Amino acid sequence: MAKTTELICVTCPMGCKLTVTHEGDTILGIEGNVCKRGEAYAQTELVDPRRMVATTVQVVGGVHPLVPVYTTAPIPKPLIFDLLSELRQVKLRAPILAGRVVLEDALGTGVTVLTSRDLPAAPG
Amino acid sequence: MAKRTVDVAVIGSGPGGLAAAIAAKKEGAGNVLVVERDVEMGGILLQCIHHGFGTEILGADLPGPAYAQRFEQEAISLGVETLLDTMVLDITPTRQIVAASESSGLLEVQARSIVLAMGCRERTRAQITLPGARPAGVYTAGMAQRFVNVEGFVPGRRIVILGSGDIGMIMARRLTFEGAKVARVVEIMPFLSGLMRNYVQCLLDFDIPLQLGHTISRIIGRRRVEAVEVVQVDDQWRPVPGTEEIIPCDTLLLSVGLIPENELSRNVGVALDPVTGGPYVDERFETTMPGIFAAGNVVHVYDLVDWVTEAGYVAGKHAARFAAGDRAGQLDYVRLEAGENVRYVVPHVLTRDQLPGESIKLQMRARQPIEKPVWVELRDGEKRLIRRAERYARPGEMLTLVLPERSYEDVRQAETLTVNVLER
Fold it and tell me: Is B75 helix (H, G, I), strand (E, B) or coil?
Protein backbone atom coordinates (compact mmCIF):
# COMPACT_ATOMS: atom_id res chain seq x y z
CA MET A 1 0.00 0.00 0.00
CA ALA A 2 1.42 3.37 -1.01
CA LYS A 3 1.44 5.92 1.81
CA THR A 4 1.88 9.66 1.83
CA THR A 5 4.05 11.31 4.46
CA GLU A 6 4.43 15.06 4.92
CA LEU A 7 7.95 16.17 5.85
CA ILE A 8 9.69 19.49 6.24
CA CYS A 9 13.20 19.47 4.89
CA VAL A 10 15.68 20.83 7.46
CA THR A 11 18.76 20.73 5.23
CA CYS A 12 18.79 24.50 4.74
CA PRO A 13 16.75 27.44 6.06
CA MET A 14 14.27 27.24 3.14
CA GLY A 15 12.32 24.55 4.98
CA CYS A 16 10.63 22.99 1.93
CA LYS A 17 7.37 21.15 2.63
CA LEU A 18 7.80 17.70 1.12
CA THR A 19 5.02 15.33 0.22
CA VAL A 20 6.54 11.87 0.01
CA THR A 21 4.69 8.95 -1.53
CA HIS A 22 6.23 5.67 -0.44
CA GLU A 23 5.62 1.98 0.06
CA GLY A 24 7.39 1.13 3.29
CA ASP A 25 10.93 2.43 2.85
CA THR A 26 10.70 2.66 -0.93
CA ILE A 27 10.02 6.16 -2.14
CA LEU A 28 7.71 6.38 -5.14
CA GLY A 29 7.64 10.14 -5.49
CA ILE A 30 8.55 13.40 -3.79
CA GLU A 31 6.93 16.78 -4.33
CA GLY A 32 7.66 20.19 -2.92
CA ASN A 33 11.46 20.13 -2.85
CA VAL A 34 13.26 23.00 -4.54
CA CYS A 35 16.62 21.25 -4.80
CA LYS A 36 18.10 17.76 -4.92
CA ARG A 37 19.01 17.82 -1.25
CA GLY A 38 15.31 17.51 -0.47
CA GLU A 39 15.24 14.06 -2.08
CA ALA A 40 18.22 12.90 -0.05
CA TYR A 41 16.63 14.30 3.10
CA ALA A 42 13.35 12.47 2.47
CA GLN A 43 15.23 9.20 1.84
CA THR A 44 17.09 9.27 5.13
CA GLU A 45 14.26 10.87 7.12
CA LEU A 46 11.97 7.92 6.35
CA VAL A 47 14.52 5.19 7.02
CA ASP A 48 17.21 6.60 9.31
CA PRO A 49 16.48 10.15 10.50
CA ARG A 50 19.64 12.07 11.35
CA ARG A 51 20.42 15.44 12.88
CA MET A 52 23.37 17.70 13.34
CA VAL A 53 24.28 18.17 16.99
CA ALA A 54 25.97 21.16 18.62
CA THR A 55 26.77 21.43 22.31
CA THR A 56 29.61 22.52 24.59
CA VAL A 57 32.39 20.70 26.43
CA GLN A 58 34.20 21.72 29.58
CA VAL A 59 37.44 23.67 29.41
CA VAL A 60 40.14 24.08 32.02
CA GLY A 61 42.14 27.30 32.09
CA GLY A 62 40.32 29.09 29.25
CA VAL A 63 38.83 32.56 28.89
CA HIS A 64 35.47 30.77 29.09
CA PRO A 65 34.61 27.61 31.06
CA LEU A 66 33.24 25.93 27.89
CA VAL A 67 34.08 25.54 24.25
CA PRO A 68 31.34 24.94 21.65
CA VAL A 69 31.60 21.75 19.59
CA TYR A 70 29.66 20.39 16.62
CA THR A 71 29.18 17.30 14.51
CA THR A 72 30.54 17.59 10.97
CA ALA A 73 27.73 15.36 9.68
CA PRO A 74 24.30 14.42 11.01
CA ILE A 75 24.08 11.51 13.44
CA PRO A 76 21.13 9.11 13.89
CA LYS A 77 18.41 10.80 15.93
CA PRO A 78 18.16 8.02 18.53
CA LEU A 79 21.86 8.53 19.40
CA ILE A 80 21.65 12.26 20.16
CA PHE A 81 21.39 11.88 23.94
CA ASP A 82 24.10 9.20 24.04
CA LEU A 83 26.41 11.54 22.19
CA LEU A 84 25.61 14.35 24.62
CA SER A 85 26.45 12.10 27.60
CA GLU A 86 29.72 11.11 25.99
CA LEU A 87 30.63 14.75 25.39
CA ARG A 88 29.78 15.61 28.99
CA GLN A 89 32.76 13.42 30.03
CA VAL A 90 35.21 15.42 27.90
CA LYS A 91 37.42 18.06 29.47
CA LEU A 92 39.84 20.07 27.33
CA ARG A 93 42.72 22.27 28.43
CA ALA A 94 43.06 25.76 26.96
CA PRO A 95 44.43 27.07 24.66
CA ILE A 96 42.24 25.32 22.11
CA LEU A 97 42.16 25.82 18.35
CA ALA A 98 39.06 25.71 16.18
CA GLY A 99 38.61 22.43 14.32
CA ARG A 100 40.26 20.32 17.01
CA VAL A 101 38.92 16.76 17.03
CA VAL A 102 36.94 16.18 20.22
CA LEU A 103 35.52 12.78 19.24
CA GLU A 104 36.51 10.72 16.26
CA ASP A 105 33.98 8.21 14.95
CA ALA A 106 31.52 9.25 17.67
CA LEU A 107 29.59 6.19 18.97
CA GLY A 108 30.79 4.25 15.95
CA THR A 109 28.80 6.44 13.54
CA GLY A 110 31.82 7.62 11.60
CA VAL A 111 30.89 11.20 12.52
CA THR A 112 33.55 13.56 13.88
CA VAL A 113 32.96 16.15 16.60
CA LEU A 114 35.07 19.29 16.30
CA THR A 115 35.56 22.46 18.32
CA SER A 116 33.82 25.47 16.74
CA ARG A 117 36.27 28.18 17.73
CA ASP A 118 39.65 29.07 19.17
CA LEU A 119 39.60 29.42 22.92
CA PRO A 120 42.63 31.24 24.34
CA ALA A 121 43.99 30.47 27.79
CA ALA A 122 42.91 32.82 30.54
CA PRO A 123 45.54 35.45 31.26
CA GLY A 124 47.61 34.97 34.42
CA MET B 1 42.63 61.96 25.43
CA ALA B 2 44.13 59.65 22.80
CA LYS B 3 43.20 60.82 19.27
CA ARG B 4 43.55 59.20 15.91
CA THR B 5 42.24 59.40 12.36
CA VAL B 6 41.00 56.51 10.23
CA ASP B 7 39.38 56.11 6.84
CA VAL B 8 36.57 53.79 7.89
CA ALA B 9 35.44 53.12 11.45
CA VAL B 10 33.11 50.19 12.07
CA ILE B 11 31.12 50.03 15.29
CA GLY B 12 30.56 46.42 16.27
CA SER B 13 32.35 43.22 15.24
CA GLY B 14 29.42 40.90 14.61
CA PRO B 15 28.88 39.52 11.11
CA GLY B 16 27.72 42.89 9.72
CA GLY B 17 30.68 44.80 11.11
CA LEU B 18 33.27 42.19 10.11
CA ALA B 19 31.92 42.02 6.55
CA ALA B 20 31.89 45.82 6.32
CA ALA B 21 35.50 46.01 7.52
CA ILE B 22 36.59 43.31 5.05
CA ALA B 23 34.81 44.98 2.14
CA ALA B 24 36.18 48.41 3.05
CA LYS B 25 39.73 47.04 3.03
CA LYS B 26 39.19 45.25 -0.28
CA GLU B 27 37.83 48.48 -1.75
CA GLY B 28 41.14 50.12 -0.91
CA ALA B 29 40.49 51.94 2.37
CA GLY B 30 43.76 52.63 4.19
CA ASN B 31 42.92 52.39 7.87
CA VAL B 32 39.87 50.41 8.81
CA LEU B 33 39.17 50.26 12.53
CA VAL B 34 36.60 48.00 14.21
CA VAL B 35 35.50 49.08 17.68
CA GLU B 36 34.01 46.27 19.78
CA ARG B 37 32.71 46.54 23.32
CA ASP B 38 33.21 42.85 24.13
CA VAL B 39 36.64 41.39 24.87
CA GLU B 40 36.49 39.29 21.70
CA MET B 41 35.17 39.70 18.17
CA GLY B 42 32.19 37.92 16.67
CA GLY B 43 29.20 39.46 18.42
CA ILE B 44 26.19 37.30 19.16
CA LEU B 45 27.43 34.57 16.80
CA LEU B 46 29.73 33.45 19.61
CA GLN B 47 26.76 32.22 21.62
CA CYS B 48 24.93 30.77 18.59
CA ILE B 49 26.69 27.41 18.78
CA HIS B 50 24.07 25.62 16.64
CA HIS B 51 24.49 24.80 12.95
CA GLY B 52 22.91 26.64 10.05
CA PHE B 53 25.32 29.47 9.36
CA GLY B 54 26.93 29.86 5.96
CA THR B 55 24.65 27.62 3.88
CA GLU B 56 23.89 30.45 1.44
CA ILE B 57 27.21 32.22 0.94
CA LEU B 58 29.82 29.67 2.01
CA GLY B 59 28.12 26.47 0.91
CA ALA B 60 28.93 25.11 4.37
CA ASP B 61 26.75 24.42 7.39
CA LEU B 62 28.77 25.98 10.21
CA PRO B 63 28.08 26.75 13.85
CA GLY B 64 27.98 30.47 14.71
CA PRO B 65 31.41 30.70 16.36
CA ALA B 66 33.08 29.01 13.36
CA TYR B 67 31.32 31.39 10.99
CA ALA B 68 32.45 34.39 13.05
CA GLN B 69 36.02 33.17 13.27
CA ARG B 70 36.28 32.75 9.52
CA PHE B 71 35.44 36.42 8.97
CA GLU B 72 37.48 37.59 11.93
CA GLN B 73 40.55 35.89 10.47
CA GLU B 74 39.91 37.36 7.05
CA ALA B 75 39.58 40.85 8.53
CA ILE B 76 42.80 40.50 10.50
CA SER B 77 44.71 39.10 7.52
CA LEU B 78 43.60 42.10 5.44
CA GLY B 79 45.00 44.46 8.04
CA VAL B 80 41.80 45.58 9.73
CA GLU B 81 42.64 47.08 13.13
CA THR B 82 40.54 46.43 16.20
CA LEU B 83 39.83 48.06 19.52
CA LEU B 84 38.33 45.46 21.86
CA ASP B 85 36.69 46.00 25.24
CA THR B 86 35.93 49.50 24.00
CA MET B 87 32.52 51.10 24.19
CA VAL B 88 31.51 53.81 21.75
CA LEU B 89 29.80 56.57 23.73
CA ASP B 90 29.00 59.08 21.03
CA ILE B 91 29.26 59.90 17.36
CA THR B 92 29.16 63.42 15.96
CA PRO B 93 27.73 64.51 12.58
CA THR B 94 31.31 65.28 11.52
CA ARG B 95 32.07 61.60 12.20
CA GLN B 96 34.08 61.89 15.35
CA ILE B 97 33.74 58.87 17.59
CA VAL B 98 34.17 59.11 21.34
CA ALA B 99 34.83 55.77 22.99
CA ALA B 100 36.01 54.50 26.35
CA SER B 101 37.91 51.47 27.52
CA GLU B 102 39.27 50.32 30.82
CA SER B 103 42.84 50.16 29.53
CA SER B 104 42.98 53.38 27.49
CA GLY B 105 40.38 55.63 29.10
CA LEU B 106 38.66 58.04 26.72
CA LEU B 107 39.53 57.79 23.03
CA GLU B 108 38.64 59.99 20.09
CA VAL B 109 38.61 58.68 16.55
CA GLN B 110 38.03 60.92 13.54
CA ALA B 111 36.67 58.77 10.71
CA ARG B 112 36.13 59.73 7.08
CA SER B 113 33.19 57.34 7.07
CA ILE B 114 31.46 55.21 9.68
CA VAL B 115 29.63 51.90 9.46
CA LEU B 116 27.09 51.35 12.23
CA ALA B 117 26.99 47.62 13.01
CA MET B 118 25.59 47.45 16.53
CA GLY B 119 23.17 44.64 15.73
CA CYS B 120 19.96 44.30 17.66
CA ARG B 121 18.60 43.74 21.14
CA GLU B 122 15.92 41.48 22.45
CA ARG B 123 12.54 42.77 23.48
CA THR B 124 12.11 42.32 27.20
CA ARG B 125 9.28 41.75 29.63
CA ALA B 126 8.78 45.51 29.94
CA GLN B 127 8.17 45.87 26.22
CA ILE B 128 5.39 43.32 26.14
CA THR B 129 3.88 44.47 29.47
CA LEU B 130 3.65 41.02 30.96
CA PRO B 131 1.58 41.18 34.17
CA GLY B 132 2.10 39.31 37.40
CA ALA B 133 4.76 39.08 40.08
CA ARG B 134 8.41 39.99 39.47
CA PRO B 135 10.29 36.94 40.69
CA ALA B 136 13.70 35.68 39.55
CA GLY B 137 13.65 33.26 36.64
CA VAL B 138 12.42 35.47 33.79
CA TYR B 139 15.05 35.85 31.06
CA THR B 140 15.22 36.73 27.42
CA ALA B 141 16.07 33.71 25.28
CA GLY B 142 19.36 35.25 24.14
CA MET B 143 20.41 35.91 27.71
CA ALA B 144 19.74 32.27 28.56
CA GLN B 145 21.70 31.32 25.44
CA ARG B 146 24.71 33.24 26.71
CA PHE B 147 24.38 31.59 30.16
CA VAL B 148 24.22 28.06 28.73
CA ASN B 149 26.63 28.30 25.81
CA VAL B 150 29.31 30.70 27.00
CA GLU B 151 29.18 31.03 30.76
CA GLY B 152 28.28 27.45 31.55
CA PHE B 153 25.16 27.37 33.66
CA VAL B 154 21.58 26.32 33.00
CA PRO B 155 18.98 28.88 34.13
CA GLY B 156 16.31 26.39 35.28
CA ARG B 157 14.93 22.86 35.24
CA ARG B 158 11.38 23.32 34.00
CA ILE B 159 10.92 25.95 31.37
CA VAL B 160 8.18 27.74 29.47
CA ILE B 161 9.10 29.82 26.43
CA LEU B 162 6.98 32.73 25.25
CA GLY B 163 7.38 33.40 21.54
CA SER B 164 8.18 31.05 18.68
CA GLY B 165 11.11 33.04 17.33
CA ASP B 166 14.18 31.12 16.22
CA ILE B 167 16.22 31.87 19.33
CA GLY B 168 13.39 30.61 21.54
CA MET B 169 13.04 27.35 19.63
CA ILE B 170 16.79 26.82 19.48
CA MET B 171 16.98 27.37 23.23
CA ALA B 172 14.16 24.87 23.76
CA ARG B 173 16.36 22.22 22.14
CA ARG B 174 19.52 23.42 23.83
CA LEU B 175 17.97 23.31 27.30
CA THR B 176 16.55 19.85 26.54
CA PHE B 177 20.10 18.77 25.67
CA GLU B 178 21.23 20.06 29.06
CA GLY B 179 18.62 18.03 30.91
CA ALA B 180 15.94 20.68 31.45
CA LYS B 181 12.29 20.02 30.64
CA VAL B 182 10.69 22.50 28.26
CA ALA B 183 7.02 22.29 29.16
CA ARG B 184 5.70 24.45 26.33
CA VAL B 185 6.36 27.10 23.71
CA VAL B 186 3.55 29.66 23.61
CA GLU B 187 3.00 31.96 20.60
CA ILE B 188 0.46 34.80 20.51
CA MET B 189 0.23 34.84 16.71
CA PRO B 190 -1.79 32.18 14.88
CA PHE B 191 1.41 31.21 13.03
CA LEU B 192 5.04 30.35 13.80
CA SER B 193 7.32 33.37 13.95
CA GLY B 194 10.60 31.53 13.33
CA LEU B 195 11.74 29.16 10.58
CA MET B 196 9.93 25.87 9.89
CA ARG B 197 13.18 23.93 10.07
CA ASN B 198 13.61 25.05 13.65
CA TYR B 199 10.08 23.95 14.47
CA VAL B 200 10.98 20.48 13.13
CA GLN B 201 14.45 20.00 14.57
CA CYS B 202 14.03 21.92 17.84
CA LEU B 203 10.44 21.25 18.92
CA LEU B 204 8.92 18.30 17.00
CA ASP B 205 12.05 16.15 17.41
CA PHE B 206 11.81 16.42 21.20
CA ASP B 207 8.03 16.43 21.55
CA ILE B 208 8.00 19.99 22.86
CA PRO B 209 4.44 21.31 22.51
CA LEU B 210 3.85 24.54 20.58
CA GLN B 211 0.66 26.43 21.36
CA LEU B 212 -0.31 29.04 18.75
CA GLY B 213 -2.80 31.85 19.42
CA HIS B 214 -1.97 31.82 23.13
CA THR B 215 -0.05 34.09 25.43
CA ILE B 216 1.05 34.32 29.03
CA SER B 217 -1.38 36.33 31.11
CA ARG B 218 0.38 36.17 34.45
CA ILE B 219 3.65 35.18 36.08
CA ILE B 220 3.22 33.42 39.42
CA GLY B 221 5.83 33.16 42.18
CA ARG B 222 7.29 35.38 44.89
CA ARG B 223 11.05 34.88 44.95
CA ARG B 224 11.35 32.52 41.99
CA VAL B 225 8.96 31.76 39.12
CA GLU B 226 6.61 28.97 40.26
CA ALA B 227 4.18 28.89 37.36
CA VAL B 228 2.78 30.89 34.47
CA GLU B 229 -0.83 31.32 33.42
CA VAL B 230 -1.40 30.68 29.72
CA VAL B 231 -4.50 31.97 27.99
CA GLN B 232 -5.94 31.78 24.49
CA VAL B 233 -6.28 35.09 22.62
CA ASP B 234 -8.82 36.22 20.04
CA ASP B 235 -7.93 37.85 16.72
CA GLN B 236 -7.47 41.18 18.53
CA TRP B 237 -4.97 39.54 20.93
CA ARG B 238 -7.49 39.86 23.79
CA PRO B 239 -7.48 37.01 26.32
CA VAL B 240 -10.46 34.66 25.96
CA PRO B 241 -12.01 34.30 29.45
CA GLY B 242 -12.29 30.75 30.70
CA THR B 243 -9.27 29.46 28.72
CA GLU B 244 -6.70 30.12 31.46
CA GLU B 245 -4.32 27.29 32.30
CA ILE B 246 -1.62 27.22 34.97
CA ILE B 247 1.69 25.66 33.89
CA PRO B 248 4.18 24.96 36.69
CA CYS B 249 7.73 26.03 35.80
CA ASP B 250 10.76 27.66 37.41
CA THR B 251 11.88 29.66 34.40
CA LEU B 252 10.21 31.73 31.71
CA LEU B 253 12.17 32.59 28.58
CA LEU B 254 11.03 35.41 26.33
CA SER B 255 11.63 35.11 22.61
CA VAL B 256 9.39 37.97 21.62
CA GLY B 257 11.30 39.79 18.95
CA LEU B 258 14.41 41.77 18.26
CA ILE B 259 14.86 45.51 17.91
CA PRO B 260 17.72 47.12 15.99
CA GLU B 261 20.07 48.79 18.48
CA ASN B 262 20.23 52.44 17.47
CA GLU B 263 20.94 54.57 20.51
CA LEU B 264 24.12 55.93 18.90
CA SER B 265 22.39 56.44 15.55
CA ARG B 266 19.55 58.38 17.16
CA ASN B 267 21.91 60.60 19.14
CA VAL B 268 23.89 61.61 16.07
CA GLY B 269 20.70 62.47 14.20
CA VAL B 270 20.31 59.50 11.84
CA ALA B 271 16.61 59.26 10.88
CA LEU B 272 15.04 55.97 11.97
CA ASP B 273 12.19 54.05 10.38
CA PRO B 274 9.54 53.39 13.05
CA VAL B 275 8.58 50.12 11.30
CA THR B 276 12.02 48.48 11.22
CA GLY B 277 13.49 50.37 14.17
CA GLY B 278 16.60 50.92 12.05
CA PRO B 279 17.96 53.79 9.97
CA TYR B 280 16.43 54.78 6.65
CA VAL B 281 19.00 53.62 4.11
CA ASP B 282 19.63 53.75 0.38
CA GLU B 283 20.81 50.78 -1.67
CA ARG B 284 24.38 51.35 -0.47
CA PHE B 285 23.20 51.28 3.14
CA GLU B 286 24.03 54.93 3.64
CA THR B 287 21.83 56.53 6.30
CA THR B 288 20.33 60.04 6.19
CA MET B 289 23.66 61.39 7.51
CA PRO B 290 26.31 61.58 4.77
CA GLY B 291 29.19 59.20 5.33
CA ILE B 292 27.38 57.21 8.02
CA PHE B 293 26.45 53.76 6.77
CA ALA B 294 24.68 50.90 8.54
CA ALA B 295 25.12 47.16 8.16
CA GLY B 296 23.12 44.14 9.25
CA ASN B 297 20.62 43.81 12.07
CA VAL B 298 21.10 47.44 13.07
CA VAL B 299 19.08 48.23 9.89
CA HIS B 300 16.45 45.51 10.12
CA VAL B 301 16.44 42.07 11.65
CA TYR B 302 17.53 39.47 9.09
CA ASP B 303 16.59 35.79 9.05
CA LEU B 304 20.04 34.58 8.05
CA VAL B 305 23.52 35.64 9.01
CA ASP B 306 24.57 35.09 5.40
CA TRP B 307 22.41 38.04 4.37
CA VAL B 308 23.84 40.17 7.17
CA THR B 309 27.29 39.46 5.79
CA GLU B 310 26.18 40.42 2.29
CA ALA B 311 24.67 43.67 3.58
CA GLY B 312 27.91 44.35 5.45
CA TYR B 313 29.89 43.93 2.23
CA VAL B 314 27.73 46.52 0.48
CA ALA B 315 27.92 49.02 3.36
CA GLY B 316 31.67 48.57 3.81
CA LYS B 317 32.45 48.95 0.13
CA HIS B 318 30.51 52.20 -0.13
CA ALA B 319 31.89 53.48 3.16
CA ALA B 320 35.37 53.01 1.66
CA ARG B 321 34.35 54.89 -1.50
CA PHE B 322 32.92 57.73 0.58
CA ALA B 323 36.14 57.85 2.61
CA ALA B 324 38.08 58.15 -0.65
CA GLY B 325 36.08 61.28 -1.53
CA ASP B 326 33.99 59.57 -4.18
CA ARG B 327 30.90 61.77 -3.86
CA ALA B 328 29.80 64.45 -6.31
CA GLY B 329 27.24 66.84 -4.85
CA GLN B 330 23.80 66.10 -3.46
CA LEU B 331 22.12 62.78 -4.16
CA ASP B 332 18.69 62.53 -5.71
CA TYR B 333 16.53 59.67 -4.51
CA VAL B 334 13.71 57.50 -5.79
CA ARG B 335 11.42 56.43 -2.98
CA LEU B 336 10.69 52.75 -2.46
CA GLU B 337 7.39 52.10 -0.74
CA ALA B 338 5.92 49.08 1.00
CA GLY B 339 2.71 48.38 -0.92
CA GLU B 340 0.13 45.63 -0.68
CA ASN B 341 0.82 43.08 2.03
CA VAL B 342 4.34 44.41 2.61
CA ARG B 343 5.22 45.59 6.10
CA TYR B 344 8.51 47.18 5.09
CA VAL B 345 11.15 47.10 2.40
CA VAL B 346 14.88 47.81 2.66
CA PRO B 347 16.42 49.89 1.15
CA HIS B 348 13.97 52.73 1.66
CA VAL B 349 15.27 54.78 -1.26
CA LEU B 350 17.35 54.23 -4.37
CA THR B 351 19.85 56.80 -5.61
CA ARG B 352 18.61 58.01 -8.96
CA ASP B 353 21.92 58.60 -10.73
CA GLN B 354 24.43 56.71 -8.61
CA LEU B 355 23.09 53.17 -8.77
CA PRO B 356 26.08 50.87 -8.38
CA GLY B 357 27.14 48.62 -11.22
CA GLU B 358 25.74 45.52 -9.60
CA SER B 359 22.30 44.10 -8.96
CA ILE B 360 20.54 45.41 -5.86
CA LYS B 361 18.65 43.30 -3.35
CA LEU B 362 15.29 44.60 -2.18
CA GLN B 363 14.41 42.76 1.03
CA MET B 364 10.98 42.89 2.58
CA ARG B 365 8.60 41.27 5.00
CA ALA B 366 5.03 40.31 4.24
CA ARG B 367 2.35 41.70 6.52
CA GLN B 368 0.07 38.63 6.45
CA PRO B 369 0.92 35.03 5.61
CA ILE B 370 -0.25 33.72 2.22
CA GLU B 371 0.09 29.95 2.07
CA LYS B 372 -0.33 29.93 -1.70
CA PRO B 373 1.91 30.85 -4.61
CA VAL B 374 2.57 34.60 -4.68
CA TRP B 375 4.15 37.26 -6.86
CA VAL B 376 6.64 39.64 -5.33
CA GLU B 377 6.60 42.63 -7.66
CA LEU B 378 8.10 46.08 -8.11
CA ARG B 379 5.94 48.73 -9.74
CA ASP B 380 6.13 52.31 -10.92
CA GLY B 381 2.41 53.08 -10.81
CA GLU B 382 0.79 51.04 -13.56
CA LYS B 383 4.09 49.80 -14.91
CA ARG B 384 5.48 46.60 -13.48
CA LEU B 385 9.28 46.63 -13.51
CA ILE B 386 10.07 43.16 -12.23
CA ARG B 387 8.38 40.32 -10.42
CA ARG B 388 9.36 37.05 -8.89
CA ALA B 389 7.32 33.96 -8.09
CA GLU B 390 7.43 32.54 -4.57
CA ARG B 391 5.65 29.46 -3.29
CA TYR B 392 4.26 31.31 -0.29
CA ALA B 393 4.76 34.44 1.79
CA ARG B 394 5.23 34.35 5.55
CA PRO B 395 5.98 37.30 7.83
CA GLY B 396 8.71 35.25 9.51
CA GLU B 397 10.60 34.68 6.27
CA MET B 398 12.11 37.64 4.47
CA LEU B 399 11.35 38.01 0.77
CA THR B 400 13.99 39.16 -1.67
CA LEU B 401 13.57 40.79 -5.04
CA VAL B 402 16.73 41.39 -7.04
CA LEU B 403 16.76 44.61 -9.06
CA PRO B 404 18.84 43.85 -12.15
CA GLU B 405 20.96 46.47 -13.90
CA ARG B 406 18.67 46.42 -16.90
CA SER B 407 15.92 47.95 -14.72
CA TYR B 408 18.03 50.94 -13.70
CA GLU B 409 16.70 53.12 -16.49
CA ASP B 410 13.13 52.48 -15.28
CA VAL B 411 14.20 53.38 -11.75
CA ARG B 412 15.69 56.67 -12.95
CA GLN B 413 12.39 57.63 -14.58
CA ALA B 414 10.35 56.96 -11.44
CA GLU B 415 9.35 59.19 -8.54
CA THR B 416 8.14 56.40 -6.27
CA LEU B 417 8.39 52.66 -6.67
CA THR B 418 6.17 50.21 -4.82
CA VAL B 419 6.69 46.59 -3.83
CA ASN B 420 3.68 44.30 -3.45
CA VAL B 421 3.19 40.70 -2.39
CA LEU B 422 0.13 39.34 -4.18
CA GLU B 423 -1.56 36.00 -4.61
CA ARG B 424 -0.62 34.43 -7.93
Answer: helix
